[in-house]
Amino acid sequence: MSGHLQRGNKLWEGSRMFLPEHKQALLKWQKEQEKQTKPELDEQQLEEMNRMLISACRLRVPVTVRFFEAGNFLTATGTITKFRPLEKKLELAGETGERISIKLSAVTEVERA
């Protein structure tokens, strides 16, 4: 067999194209693959988080809250300024003074900082 037939796909390597649309689609697909799913918490875990949030609010101690947003886990640390269980919202004053608003349904973990 001659050498040019044993090259595999190398004959066409130089003529490949990668359009900007292809690159955008590939990057979008990779980001979607990186997204995680929100874990389902049982009743006991929810009750424990609720107790921790209430005591941290009363004592004005800083907490670290891990929450799920847009397919990613995020972490915020600060002092609770507003805790509204009926509205299902939590507001923290961050270490640098910024206000962080979090939906309670997105919270996955709470611990004292």
Oligomer state of the chains in this structure:
single chain
Mean pLDDT: 83
Spatial strand arrangement across the major sheet: 4-3-2-1-5
Shape designation = elongated
What portion of residues belong to β-strands? 25-35%
- Rg over C-alpha atoms, rounded to the nearest angstrom: 24 Å
Kindly report the CATH topology of the domain at 43-112.
SH3 type barrels
Secondary-structure-based class equals alpha+beta
* Known CATH architecture of the domain at 43-112: Roll
Which CATH class of the domain at 43-112 is shown? Mainly Beta
Secondary structure tally, helices: 2
Share of residues in helices: 25-40%
Uncertain ranges: none
Largest β-sheet summary: 5 strands, antiparallel
- H-E string: HHEEEEE
Q: How many beta-strand runs?
A: 5
Pfam family, one: YolD
Protein name: YolD-like family protein
Organism: Heyndrickxia faecalis
Please render the helix and strand layout as text.
Blueprint: H1 20-34, H2 43-59, E1 62-69, E2 72-84, E3 89-94, E4 99-103, E5 107-112
Antiparallel strand pairs: 1-2, 1-5, 2-3, 3-4
What would you say this structure looks like, in words?
- A hairpin with a 4-residue loop joins strand 3 (89-94) and strand 4 (99-103).
- The model has no long low-confidence stretch (mean pLDDT 83).
- This protein has a domain at 43-112: SH3 type barrels (Roll), CATH 2.30.30.520.
- The protein is built from 2 helices and 5 strands; from the N terminus they run ααβββββ.
- The protein is elongated, with a radius of gyration of 24 Å.
- A 5-stranded antiparallel beta sheet has the order 4-3-2-1-5, with helices on one face.
- With 113 residues, it is of the alpha+beta class.
